[in-house]
Amino acid sequence: MPTVELVNVSKRFGKVVAADNVNLRVEDGEYVAVVGPSGCGKTTTLRIIAGLIKPDEGKVLIDGVDVSDVPPEERGVGFVFQNYALFPHMNVWENVTYGPWVRGWDERRMSEVAREMLSLVNLSGREDAYPRELSGGMQQRVALSRALATETRLLLLDEPLGALDAKIRVELRREIRKLVKDLEVTAIHVTHDTEEALMVSDRIVVMRRGRIEQVGSPKEIYFKPKTLFVAGFVGEMNFLEGIVTEKSSDVITVKLEGSKERIVVRGEDGDFRRGSRVVVAVRPENLTIGSVEEGSPQGEIESAFFLGSIIKVTILLSNGVQVTTYVPPYSDVKVGERVSIYFDPSDCILFTHPGIPLTEALRG
Ligand SMILES: Nc1ncnc2c1ncn2[C@@H]1O[C@H](COP(=O)(O)OP(=O)(O)OP(=O)(O)O)[C@@H](O)[C@H]1O
Ligand SMILES: [Mg+2]
User: Fold this and answer.
1) Where do the domains of the chain lie, and which CATH numbers do they carry?
2) 100, 273, 288, 352: which is deepest, by most CB within 10 A?
3) Which atom of ligand 1 is closest in space to residue 192's alpha carbon?
4) Is the CB of 15 inside a 6 Å radius of any atom of ligand 1?
5) Could you identify the atom of ligand 1 that is nearest to the CA of residue 53?
6) Distance in angstroms (rounded) separating the CA atoms of residues 207 and 232
7) Ordered alpha helix ranges (H), 121-164
8) Ligand 2 centroid vs 44 CA: distance in angstroms?
């Protein structure tokens, strides 16, 4: 059964460290998403697992076996890329049976598996079509069945939905996840779309600059980001910089930088002494706006965008920091109005200030 392990894997391209001492274990049957900004090393890491790139250091174990000297075609992996990569001169049937054919399977086994795969991706009946005759979503379904047709147990997906339009993308996310779980394969899915990662995976790996920042379940990553970068990268987040002015057993009062206003946050973990600089992170959905109240952070509504299910409101606080909140679609929001922002002390995450500009700490 396919577990995948990366042990101290590093890869440089000239001065660029594309993978920097990466350690990761993916369990059998697990669906892992790898996210991170462009250039952080996602594709490199995936190609190292596939055997398409040789790491400078470290090793890859598949099922506990060091595959350093095993060529890609013998690693038992199926690969799906963003750009479909189907053979253009072959029809759907020929594309899907290509892998089994190269491996010399007999006609019956080959047909059975190909038929099953095409039916799983809802393409039965389209066997004779050529890739150019299919929509992007259909082509990607063919690519999936082709990757799985060799009875591969490890599926590697590199931005498989990146080239598709939004509706099809969401539909296919669900289908891929179901396929992976039904066939009990192990999947590693690279995407820069964090919503996609939250939706499809059992665990998310967040990468930054060649390194793994955090590994955790979608909920852990969303609710308990370990670093400012993860907090800012996955989902939307507001950041407020300040100084701890008071500390009681369970709450901390933080004076915002650049203003006299104060906020109260829960402070059970971490070492946040009086006088220490902190960053308070709070999600838009946990922030509310209301009438101006002395002492709580105030600002002016800067913009309000109607997005159908919500209105996205940005507020420019008096210290120049911009924050975002969502309000119900029927709300009457007036740009220019002065408001105060509110949130529950337990709905925010407190970080020690990184000591560098926030923009730098959040950058990929
Ligand atoms: N063949 C190569 N030659 C030189 N540099 C490379 C090569 N492949 C990758 N790199 C560099 O390594 C770094 C990581 O690249 P990689 O393709 O793994 O990023 P990525 O996370 O997949 O990004 P994206 O989201 O844009 O696909 C980048 O700085 C990239 O320019
Ligand atoms: Mg990539």
Assistant:
1) 4-225 (3.40.50.300), 236-362 (2.40.50.140)
2) 100
3) 25
4) no
5) 1
6) 13
7) 136-148
8) 7
